């Protein structure tokens, strides 16, 4: 697929988070400090104009940032001024930040294979049973082959969402840039109830629903019962039919047109 080119501004971001804490003595209070480093790529008219931003945030307060349009670090608070001055004095640091614009350009064209990539999930709903129980005691919704990994799978019984008896595996990699997940409803299906697996994913224009209805199982059982009864009647009627067929059967001789065979 060709890279998406738009006249509207486009933005990509990445971040690193550090949570800092320390041990405290008896009766002390444990404290945490958050250091957040955010990298942003802004695009206008494809890669015609690329802007790179690096934001340094400490305890939810931005102290300093680097802007490729400006070309150096800018302090956002008084505490950020020493940081900005220090980073601006490091040639290697400045060289790395200026080169980040080229990384943004590269990432723009890679986005169609990573950020923008969408693969629709394949869904299958089937009953399951424990080895110790003769009847079905849960329903499984298998969802596989989707990308990206974020997905939402819900179970509905008779139109109402089930939350108490739902068990899900983690989202697992398939090894081919797609993922899978198994979501089970641990409930014995009752006659007349309907069950739906509801799947919502970024690749879908709208959520999709897969139904497992007890009515379908009833039809299947009715068909099996009819087949069994048919076989019974066939077995009971096989003797007389065979006898009648034997009595009345006579193989016709081929016509010779009234002449005796030579």
TrEMBL record:
Its main location: membrane. It is a single-pass type I membrane protein. Signal peptide: none annotated. Residues 121-209 form the Ig-like domain. SUPFAM superfamilies: Immunoglobulin, MHC antigen-recognition domain. Residues 241-262 are annotated as: Disordered. GO terms for biological process: adaptive immune response; antigen processing and presentation of peptide or polysaccharide antigen via MHC class II. Residues 253-262 have a biased composition (Polar residues). InterPro entries: Ig-like_dom, Ig-like_dom_sf, Ig-like_fold, Ig/MHC_CS, Ig_C1-set, MHC/Immunoglobulin, MHC_I/II-like_Ag-recog, MHC_II_a/b_N. One of its GO terms (cellular component) is MHC class II protein complex. Pfam families: C1-set, MHC_II_beta. Keywords: Adaptive immunity, Disulfide bond, Glycoprotein, Immunity, Membrane, MHC II, Transmembrane, Transmembrane helix. It is found in: Membrane. PANTHER family: HLA CLASS II HISTOCOMPATIBILITY ANTIGEN, DRB1 BETA CHAIN, MHC CLASS II-RELATED. This is Ig-like domain-containing protein.
């Amino acid at each position: 697929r060709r890279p998406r080119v738009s006249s509207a501004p486009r933005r990509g971001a990445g971040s690193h988070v550090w949570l800092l804490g320390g041990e405290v003595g008896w009766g002390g209070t444990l404290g945490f400090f958050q250091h957040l480093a955010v990298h942003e790529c802004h695009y206008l008219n494809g890669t015609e104009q690329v802007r790179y931003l690096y934001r340094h945030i400490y305890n939810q307060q931005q102290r300093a940032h680097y802007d490729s349009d400006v070309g150096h670090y800018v302090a956002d608070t008084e505490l950020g001024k020493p940081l900005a001055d220090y980073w601006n004095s490091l040639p290697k640091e400045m060289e790395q930040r200026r080169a980040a614009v080229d990384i943004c350009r590269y990432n723009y064209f890679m986005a169609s294979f990573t950020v923008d990539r969408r693969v629709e999930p394949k869904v299958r709903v089937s009953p399951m049973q424990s080895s110790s129980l003769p009847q079905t005691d849960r329903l499984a919704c298998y969802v596989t082959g989707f990308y990206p990994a974020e997905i939402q799978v819900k179970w509905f019984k008779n139109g109402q969402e089930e939350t108490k008896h739902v068990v899900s595996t983690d989202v697992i990699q398939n090894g081919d840039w797609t993922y899978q997940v198994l979501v089970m409803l641990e409930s014995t299906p009752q006659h007349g109830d309907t069950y739906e697996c509801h799947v919502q994913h970024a690749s879908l224009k709208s959520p999709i629903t897969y139904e497992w209805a007890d009515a379908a199982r009833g039809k299947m059982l009715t068909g099996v019962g009819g087949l069994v009864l048919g076989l019974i009647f066939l077995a009971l009627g096989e003797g007389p039919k065979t006898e009648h067929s034997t009595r009345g059967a006579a193989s016709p001789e081929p016509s010779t047109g009234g002449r005796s065979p030579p």
